[in-house]
Structure formats: C-alpha cells, structure tokens
Known about the structure:
Blueprint: E1 5-16, E2 23-30, E3 33-40, E4 46-50, E5 62-73, H1 85-119, E6 121-122, E7 125-126, H2 131-159, H3 165-189, H4 201-211, H5 218-230
Antiparallel strand pairs: 1-5, 2-3, 4-5, 6-7
Helix pairs in contact: 1-2, 1-3, 1-4, 2-3, 3-4, 3-5
Amino acid sequence: QDGADWIINGAKMWITNGNLAHIAIVWAQTGDGIQGFIVPTDSAGFKAQEIHKKMSLRASVTSALFFDNVRVPDSARLPNVKGLKGPLGCLTQARYGITWGPIGAAQACLREVLDYTAERILFGRPLASNQAIQLKLADMARRITTAQLLSLQLGRLKDAGKMQPTQVSLAKWNNCRMAIDIARQCRDILGGAGITTEHSAIRHALNLESVITYEGTETVHELVGGRELTGINAF
Length: 235
C-alpha cells in the first residue's frame, strides 16, 4: 500500500483471454492478507503476453500476465473479502460449471463413433455388429449417464445452497476423467483416421488434457477427497 493507492508486482501464467480482456481480477498478497483488485489492462506496468505453441485449447487465447509496479487506487480493491476465501470461492463455482463441459465432449465423441461404426463395413458387416465394439459403446453410455446424474444432483444442491466444495471436486475429477478416457477410446475405435482432423475425438482428447488440469488437477481433487475421508490434509 502506498498512501491511497496500491502497487502490484508479480506474474501469473495460463490466463484465458489475457490479451483480450479490458480488466483483470487480481488476487494479491498484502500486509493485511490476500486481497482482490480490479486492474484495467491499459494500466502502466501491465503486460499480457500470449502463450503460443499450444497443442490443446488452440481456439482459446491463453496469456501470461505481468505486473511491474502497477498502481491502482483503493477504490479498485474488492472491499468485502480477505484471505483465500475469495479466490477459492470463485474456483468452486467455476469448477461446478466445468463438470458439465466434459459431458458434452464425451457425448460428441460417442455420437461420432456410433455413426462411424454403423457405416464402417469390415468383413461384410458393420463394425457396430462386433461384440467388442458394442461393449465399449455401452460402457461409454454408462459413464456419460453417471456423470450427467452427478452434475444434475450437484446443480440441485447448488440451487438449494447446500453444495460443498468437496462434492464439486469429486464431480470435476470424475467427469473429466470420464471424458478424456472416452475421447481416447473413441480415437482408438476410429483407427488411424482417428488422429486426423476428419474426426473430432483427437481434438476433444487434446482439449481435455487442459480441462483435466485447469481449475485444480486430478491429483488435487483426489487429495480433497482424501482429506474429507480421513480428516488429514495431505497437501
């Protein structure tokens, strides 16, 4: 803090739309704990650098943000929250939304292989007539339906004001793992063509590598579950 202003220094990578946004919500360590600030991206000392050479979420702009003595007035400080409760509360809500996204990716992959296996003729009959294929398709449907029900119940708890962070971690972990496994399996069913842009499974698989990582990695959510079960924080 500098008089009536605040001076922010630091950096943060992997920020979606960092090169496009007009403001950044910044959580910074202060002498009075962690506090949030609204920082216009045209502020002196602010720089956003786009991250290139990505193999995942290529349609999305991802950036590194740099703060070099960025000065903001006290009016830019978020007044009603201090500590990790603010940023973690935002993460809980974002993670809930993320539980739904992978379901759509998995559904798209399943729809694609349903069409493909019905049309792909091997040894005089459609690929879908093989038991091994049907077993895989049925299992995909089971896992998608389970994920849908999990997110649906989570939404009901959210509407009732009863949603707990550990429940969100469980759903984020489960649904991302479900989707990335299905995308990879669908890629396998598509054979060599599955690695081409003619089909979408490989695109979903690559994008899900990011989804399973951002907003808390799979390992983080496993540890959240472990803490809930044992009462011991192993972070």
